[in-house]
């Protein structure tokens, strides 16, 4: 049984996981809050990209 220390992708808090047990639900984040904040950031970036592509598509089709 090996223990691994991983830093939370959002805030850097150390998460200790055991390789004999399933990963925590919020891995690689320390808490659900960190996971949701990071997820929200990704969605925000995807929205901006989607909007730019849509505008270009309309210009080309017309
Ligand atoms: Zn965190």
What does this structure look like?
With 62 residues, this protein is an alpha+beta fold. The chain has one domain (3-61): 2-Layer Sandwich (Erythroid Transcription Factor GATA-1, Chain A), CATH 3.30.50.10. It has one helix at residues 32-61; strands at 3-7, 14-18. It has a two-stranded antiparallel ribbon. The N and C termini lie far apart (62 Å). The mean pLDDT is 82. It binds zinc ion. Zinc ion is lined by residues 8, 10-11, 13, 29-31, 34.
Overview features:
62 residues; alpha+beta; Erythroid Transcription Factor GATA-1, Chain A; two-stranded antiparallel ribbon; 1 helix; binds zinc ion
A few lines on this structure:
This protein is α+β, with helices and mostly antiparallel strands.
Question: Would you spell out the secondary-structure blueprint of this structure?
Answer:
Layout lengths: L2 E5 L6 E5 L13 H30 L1
Antiparallel strand pairs: 1-2
The site of zinc ion has 8 residues, from loops.
């Amino acid at each position: 049984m090996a223990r691994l220390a991983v830093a939370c992708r959002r805030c850097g808090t150390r998460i200790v996981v055991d390789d004999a047990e399933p990963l925590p639900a919020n891995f690689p984040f320390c808490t659900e809050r960190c996971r949701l904040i990071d997820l929200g950031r990704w969605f925000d970036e995807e929205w901006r990209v989607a909007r730019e592509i849509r505008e270009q598509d309309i210009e080309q089709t017309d």
